[in-house]
Specification:
single chain; 286 residues; alpha/beta; TIM Barrel; DNA polymerase, domain 1; 10 helices; 14% strand
Length: 286
């Protein structure tokens, strides 16, 4: 059984529609896929409607968190999306994403970059009224406007942390986020812990991971395409010390990451252990 627990669709910052992500997953030889768009489950119905017989979809999302001004990403699975506390935070996060994106577009225009809010919204799309506008959408608009050579160049030159068009946004405290997911009946994993952003020097601090584990964190995504072998070994050892499951995932974003579904995978026993406590939702089997 081949299991990938981290992927994105065009509902957030991937390039493919949710149903297309499933098609790519099947072509990649996967048996289980978690769709984990940023701060939304709006793509789950479309993905669930395109499952071939026997294929399993794990409903999830990548929840935006922050620690001391730096991003921390939490993968949440099988939670009740109607849970009042979690649902309210998701609305706040998504609303702030839109305000932040508008602010970035305004700064870009002041700097002479021909990016419009209308075009950014077209790139981001809209599913069931769910506005999830992210920096990758703005980056693609920057490339279209000729102000960067690639999405990565747009981040480096304009909208990355400290860039001339960067705007901070609201995000949850990681420990509180873990508690909210658990209260909503879900389970969660710390995403790509060796890849920090902002003030973090490339890794999530050990003391924070310990506090997240005490709050109910279930796993650490040690096997990630951005982690080298030493980083994978370090985070595997850290997971063992804390009694957490080790997961592996592709963090695929379609064209933006070269359609890498299945690049890293999760052991079936680890997957079973991770999802066992979940009560908010169940995997969807075609």
């Amino acid at each position: 059984m081949r299991i990938d627990l981290h992927s994105h669709s065009s509902v957030s910052d991937g390039t493919d529609a949710p149903a297309e992500v499933i098609e790519y997953a099947v072509a990649a030889g996967l048996d289980v896929l978690a769709l984990t768009d940023h701060d939304t489950v709006a793509g789950i119905p479309d993905a669930a409607g395109n499952l071939p017989p026997g294929f399993t979809l794990v409903p999830g999302m990548e929840l935006s968190c922050a620690h001391q001004g730096s991003s921390v990403h939490l993968l949440a699975y099988l939670f009740d999306a109607r849970h009042p506390g979690l649902a309210a935070e998701l609305v706040r996060i998504r609303d702030d994403r839109v305000s932040r994106a508008r602010g970035m577009v305004e700064l870009l225009r002041e700097a002479g970059v021909g990016v419009t809010w209308e075009r950014v919204r077209e790139i981001a799309g809209d599913i069931d009224g769910d506005d999830v506008v992210g920096r990758p959408h703005i980056a693609r608009a920057i490339v279209e406007a000729g102000a960067a050579d690639s999405v990565q160049d747009a981040f480096d030159r304009w909208i990355g942390s400290g860039g001339p068009a960067y705007v901070a946004r609201y995000a949850l405290d990681p420990v509180r986020a873990v508690r909210l997911v658990r209260e909503a009946g879900g389970v969660c994993a710390l995403a790509h812990p060796a890849r920090g952003e902002g003030a973090l020097t490339g890794a999530v601090p050990d003391d924070l991971v310990e506090r997240m584990a005490a709050a109910g964190l279930g796993a650490i995504e040690a096997d990630h395409p951005s982690h080298d072998e030493a980083e994978r070994a370090r985070w595997r050892a850290r997971a063992a010390e804390l009694g957490l499951v080790v997961t592996g995932s592709s963090d695929d974003h379609g064209d933006l990451t070269g359609h890498r579904l299945g690049r890293c995978t999760t052991d079936p026993d680890a997957y079973a252990e991770l999802i066992a406590p979940a009560t908010g939702a169940t995997p969807v089997v075609g």
